[in-house]
Amino acid sequence: MPVNLSLPDFASLHPVKGVQLSVVQAGIKKANRADLSVVLLDEGASVAAVFTKNRFCAAPVIIGRQNLAQGHGIRALMINTGNANAGTGEEGMMRAQATCIALARLLEISPEQVLPFSTGVIMEPLPHEKIIQALPLALDQMGESGWGDLATGIMTTDTQPKAYSKTIVLSNRTVTLTGVAKGAGMIHPNMATMLGFIASDVCISPKLMQPLTERLANASFNRITVDGDTSTNDSFVVMATHKAGNPVIEDLDQGDGKIFLDAIQELSVLLAQAIVRDAEGATKFIKIRVEGGKSEPECLQVALSIAHSPLVKTAFFASDPNLGRILAAVGYAGIEDLDPGLIDLYLDDVYVAQKGGRHPEYVEAKASEVMAKSEILVRVVLGRGACAQEVWTCDLSHDYVSINADYRS
Amino acid sequence: MPVNLSLPDFASLHPVKGVQLSVVQAGIKKANRADLSVVLLDEGASVAAVFTKNRFCAAPVIIGRQNLAQGHGIRALMINTGNANAGTGEEGMMRAQATCIALARLLEISPEQVLPFSTGVIMEPLPHEKIIQALPLALDQMGESGWGDLATGIMTTDTQPKAYSKTIVLSNRTVTLTGVAKGAGMIHPNMATMLGFIASDVCISPKLMQPLTERLANASFNRITVDGDTSTNDSFVVMATHKAGNPVIEDLDQGDGKIFLDAIQELSVLLAQAIVRDAEGATKFIKIRVEGGKSEPECLQVALSIAHSPLVKTAFFASDPNLGRILAAVGYAGIEDLDPGLIDLYLDDVYVAQKGGRHPEYVEAKASEVMAKSEILVRVVLGRGACAQEVWTCDLSHDYVSINADYRS
User: Fold this and answer.
1) How far does the CA of residue A17 sit from the closest CA of chain B (Å)?
2) Are residues B112 and B150 in the same domain?
3) Using the beta-carbon criterion (under 8 Å), do B314 and A401 form an inter-chain contact?
């Protein structure tokens, strides 16, 4: 069961002007399962994306990168579950291309205007013909209000759809933002086995789209980790249809631009945290904040070292304040000149360790109270500088093992 | 239950001339448990060690390093379980020192001639007075044949003692080697929560001892990983008492030296692999061999990336040939210029992936047969060079979570 994650109210997900959606059953892996989603964008929309840094990236990731680089204007996104089309070599590239060509033909656009996305099992051949057969039906059923269906249609081991929507007012014009995401395991920065799609009808300078997307990924999806596995298929896409009529945003750091940035960042963070809240087997949502570092990268390094430690994660699962495991993870994070004698550790408000040893007033019962909660803040102060970084993770439970041992069966 | 690890026959563990042992109950954490071991070395013995690279290393590790550096000749090792004396700050240093001083006084040696070792829970104060009280009894019970008791006395979450012994003949003189190890979780190169002690009566040039110990660690204990957690307390100690009467070994790479190196390395590898075989919750012993790399470090990097992947490890637990997870772990190992299109993957003799995609003749049923075995070789060929490296790991099971969630209770 997800940790403090409420089911999205599909009725509250605002349509985005210039975006149409459809989700159908293509029978990719299982029958009677909505497994193929298509998103259409009106001409003139701006699209930017960041993709997995895994060298073994999937065929759709390679094609998506290429098609974005062509700059012909993206008009369609096509997302399948049930098969990742990764570890499939040249044949996988051809099959992904075949689906792009088929969709482009039906839409009378060029194949370079399609972005394909796949998620599911690695190293099995993509059943591209099933996808191609299902495309006409998908196009028949296009509508503006399908965001809830999209959130559901892209799920794999997720236990519930993840979608958020909001409106803001920019210079008296209402601007809508709606986003969905999926992912529950193989979650790790740069990036997770996750797909994230956010669309807005905002008018924004197209040259801001790529830096915006990278800033958002850095503030949201690149801060989550479930198991340290970086997937072959991760993709985060931001779309702007320029239909809201607001004065075109030229600067993200002031005025309307800042309001928009804050809103879309809030959405990105909610979606990213939703992935951790629904992580495979998670029973706790844990924020790990590292302060007092010499640099942001070293803070991140320490935070991820803690977040990846199976010993730390099982202790959280057990609500056992075996907090020395956190200090051990700080110690092996790889900071050569770290002085353990300067390190402080807090669990929520409980001052656990001071200068590398147990705080004299530390009482285990208080830490146990914190450990029993479903939302926990771990705060480590390195005592070396003024930088800080935060990541979000979850505990490691029996269910994580069960889910990943049984995923394909 | 350990994977293909037979119980050592205590009667077959040869005493080592010049070494005496004793194991007693000090009541450190639990009553009626042998938790304090003392090893005495005759004057003139040579001792070398490698310790954890965790910056948050335990008090005994700091003191052990210092005492070895003093070069006064180590005469005693003192090992307690039930408490790691790590994350204990200045107070922890004082308590460890107090135990060294107490033992030194009883033996009429200097405290710098004692090496202390602790393993157990982190961040709890060491009950040093209980240890000091138990030392006289330990010294009363010294004997040469206690290696099996030592193997048992240093256990924490281990399910069985780990000890190996052998004799070799060097220039007509019999040389004995006997070693013990402990460790079952928090296992990771450089080093694991492991303690390893090997003694021999070999005559060897003292200046060879430190390079020998580092070579042995690199070939054995630094190749095992259970959960990627590098402990605060790991130590591997090699002792030579120079009593066997063989011509003094001056070179490890030829003649008697090579015979001795091979024998002690075999012992080190058996002990290291025994730790993985008895790893917390392990049901399978997995060798991961990466070949065709440009350098040994990059091969090791890829091998450890696979060995640490919770998704790979749960797939092995389930005997599910979801082998794309291995390719994904290769992809995120951090080799920037890796070409996925060159990579081959074998599972024992089954040719799984060729040039980054599924091998045309791959049949899942054959991979399933391999996955069902208790000993599995994963072989990845990078196609970039001629270097190779191997690491040893295990699967990730429900029991790993149970053991680590319940460790302190």
Assistant:
1) 38
2) yes
3) yes
Chain A contact set for B325 (CB, 8 A): 122, 229
Contact B401 A401 (CB under 8 A): yes
Is residue B5 in a domain? no
**Which of the residues of A are catalytic?**
193
Tell whether omega for the bond before B191 is within 30 degrees of 0, i.e. cis: yes
| Shortest CA gap B177–chain A (Å) | 32
ipTM of the complex model: 0.72
Tally of structural domains, chain A: 2
When CB atoms are compared, the residue of A55, A314, A400 closest to B331 is A55
Q: Which residue of B305, B345, B401 to mutate against A (max A Cβ within 10 Å)?
A: B401
Half-sphere exposure of A280 (CA within 13 A, CB side): 29
- Cβ-nearest to B232 among A328, A336, A401: A328
Q: How many CA atoms lie within 13 A of A258 on its CB side?
A: 3
Distance separating alpha carbons of residues B237 and B51, to the nearest angstrom: 9
- How do residues B329-341 score in pLDDT, each as one tens digit? 898 888 989 998 8
Residue ranges making up the domain that contains B50: 10-277
In this complex, which of B229, B325, B405 lies closest to A317 when CB atoms are compared?
A: B405
Residues A267-291 pLDDT 10s: 999 999 999 898 877 899 999 999 9
- Best residue in B29, B53, B56 to probe A by mutation, most A CBs within 10 Å? B56
- Find, among A376, A3, A331, the residue nearest to A159 by Cα: A3
* Closest approach of A378 to chain B, Cα-based (Å): 16
Are residues A100 and A245 located together in one domain of the fold? Answer: yes
DSSP bridge partners of A387: A293
Percent of chain B with pLDDT over 90: 69
Task: Give the contacts of B276 (CB within 8 A, at least 6 positions apart).
Answer: B3, B187, B224, B226, B282, B285, B392, B393, B394
Contact assessment for residue B24 and residue B177, using Cβ atoms and an 8 Å cutoff: no
* B121, burial (CB in 10 Å: exposed 0-12, middle 13-18, buried 19+): buried
Q: What is the pLDDT of residue B229?
A: 57
Sequence-distant (6+) residues with CB within 8 A of A189 are A221, A222, A223, A224, A225, A230, A304, A391
Alpha carbon B67 to its chain centroid, in Å, reads 22
CATH number of the domain encompassing residue A145: 3.60.70.12
With CA atoms as reference, report the closest residue to A398 among B372, B315, B405: B405
CA distance A357 to chain B (A): 4
User: Which CA distances in Å does A408 have to A28, A130, A404, B319, B323?
Assistant: 14, 20, 8, 11, 11
B-chain residues within 8 Å CB-CB of A89? Answer: 341, 355-358
Tens of pLDDT, residue by residue over A103-138, are 999 999 999 999 999 998 888 899 999 999 999 999
Final residue of a structural domain among B259, B277, B295: B277
Looking at B251, B277, B303, the residue that finishes a domain is B277
Interchain CB distance below 8 Å, B186 and A328: yes
Which class for B119: exposed (0-12), middle (13-18), buried (19 or more C-beta within 10 A)? buried
Sort out which chain A residues have CB atoms less than 8 A from B232's CB and list them: 324, 327-328, 331
Supply the residues of B annotated as catalytic. 193
| Predicted TM-score (pTM) of this structure | 0.81
